[in-house]
Give the backbone structure.
Amino acid sequence: MLNHLPTAPIRTTSTCAVSSALVRHCQHFGTFVLVVLSSCQLAAAEADFWATARHQLVDREIVAAGIQNQNVIDAMRHTPRHEFVPHTHRRKSYFDMALPIGGNQTISPPYVVAYMTEQLDPKPTDKVLEIGTGSGYQAAVLSRIVDQVYSIEIVESLGRRAASTLRRLGYDNVHTRIGDGFQGWPEHAPFEKIIVTCSPEEVPQPLVEQLTEGGQMIVPVGERFQQSLYRFTKVDNQLQREHLQSTFFVPMTGEAESARRVIPDLTTPEIAHESFEDTLDKSDLPRGWYYVRQGRVAEDATAPDGSLTMLFSNRTAGRNAHAMQAFGVDGRDIKKIEFSMWVQATDVRPGRLREEQAGVIVEFYGKNRAPVGFEHQGNWHGTFDWTKKELSLRVPPSARLGVIGIGLFGATGEVRFDAVTVQATVKR
């Protein structure tokens, strides 16, 4: 669908078209024409830069990570993510990471968008409902594959900005509105597919009713910091669910938020499934840990806690091999936290860049989801037996959320983790 869409802003194409006409009909204004041509050449160079970055991202972080649906891969290659990212973060557009977009919301990492889209199994004739327009990027990706996309955003400023961006880029089969996604969009129901890009504690009943019989829905469901991504299929007016993986999304607000039964305690940070003894159904993926790359739960008779550990293995310098978990932490109450874990390494070597080191990454985010602190510690290398590692960190006063990452982070070799814990050690 929509193969005619440009991968660069429409205004660039229009400017170059005008300059070509000027070259043909206004030769005597030579200097002016050269200036316009130069601007077009710069615009073309910029478009090439973004396209190159986008293709590299798809090759290294999406195809290499296992995405196989060619329609999804093509859509990721041709959807200009940088157009949906605020200018302050645009240079990171083709990093495989979430970025703040305002309104306490984020744009999901490209791999997550590709994975959810693939799991939705979109068809060219599908009418899709999206809950949580955000930046509009997910809707833009879907629009290249399906017939029509209907997208709802509860944050008015985000919804208006996304609608403007989608119109400017020519995504004519994407329809947006401002409202509470909990209620869906009954005027255009039923939908063959529904994708929810924010996390309710339970699937809203109106969405179940608006899904066609045999239709599928992708939803991250769960508590604030512990969520699971499910694929639901509607059979005989009931949802049959399939657990895909652990994940972490911004919470669904509005009616879904007011209906929450479990309210997180930000004054007592904790790591769930810290010993990796619990795996997802019929898989070697750990519960509670998300964004797992080149990692799996593996048996180890020498494990410090239980019999299972988290094993990361990487042979190509620079490739991601890690897992992450979010935890609540209120910097107004907690001044310092301490992480503890057991680590074992085999032939670990640094990657090509200085930051490509095996270890631990901890990121802190504020109330508006903007980053407020970052630590990368470890610099582990070589081979060593099970060793207890401890890490003490100051918590920024503005922090409301923490994310811990464990793994190789571009280094090569093998590293195992077990018994990863966190506790507040100093109160303010």
